[in-house]
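User: Okay, second chain of the day. Same drill as before: sequence in, structure tokens out.
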Amino acid sequence: MLPTLRQLQYLKLLAEHHSFSRAAEAAHVTQPTLSAGVQELEKILGCPVVDRGHAGVILTAAGEEAVTRAEAILAQAEDLVQAARGAGQPLAGRFRLGVIPTIAPFLLPKALPALRRRFPKLRLFLREDLTSRMIGALKSGALDAALIALPYDMNGLEWADVAEDELFAAFPANHPLTVETRVSPALLDDQDLILLEDGHCLREHALAACGLSSSRPRDEFAFAATSLPTLVQMVGSGLGVSFLPAMAVEAGLADAAAVTVRPLAADHPSRQIVVAWRAGSSRAAEGKLLAEVLRGEGG
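Assistant: Same drill. Structure tokens below.
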């Protein structure tokens, strides 16, 4: 006898909500129904998946392993349904797209109208989040695709290129380095650097562009910003220098403060924008179509 998808869903919800009552509410069933489903799953597996001797829900080692496998099975089952519903109609119906915060406000305003024109039946659900969490959501099936920036560890994912996004040095308008037409990273060694907080991949891309290590002590950086608009205001206030992606500069972000930008005199000071999806996903063709539209080839 094999577990049912419903039983696996109950287990997945337990792992997410850490409570039988909240998991039952998310599954739209009564708590006794969910509890009975989990008990039946344990009989089929031949081992407990939940440690009932603790307050709240704590998964056993077998339960943790079962959740990992259940997420993959449920994602494949949903792929099957979506593929059947969208047969012959790419990008029709629901499509869950993740976007990192350093891309969303600059690329989407131009891309969304083109998507609506070409795929009028598309119901696009957008989620803005950090790269690490979105990759987890891709692998678990919570997202169909994600618009992210490389380099990044893409194990278990496939992707299609969208654009190369150059990184620029950003200075207060009266900074001495504004006389340079191109700025060597070596000239930034003794400058107060303002970067985005840990977790933003643009932080790592900016450090790599200057040949700096992401493991440098935190006190070597002047400040950390929570978003690109905040970072621009900090630079414009004279708190330090930083880096801005070309798409943000082209969108006029640097015009919001007294900030001057200059190209970097470095090898490939850029990040690669891609649409990524889970390897083997039935949404792969749609991910490629989405990348095509975002490149401006299908609008």
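The radius of gyration is 23 Å.

User: Thanks, on to the next one.
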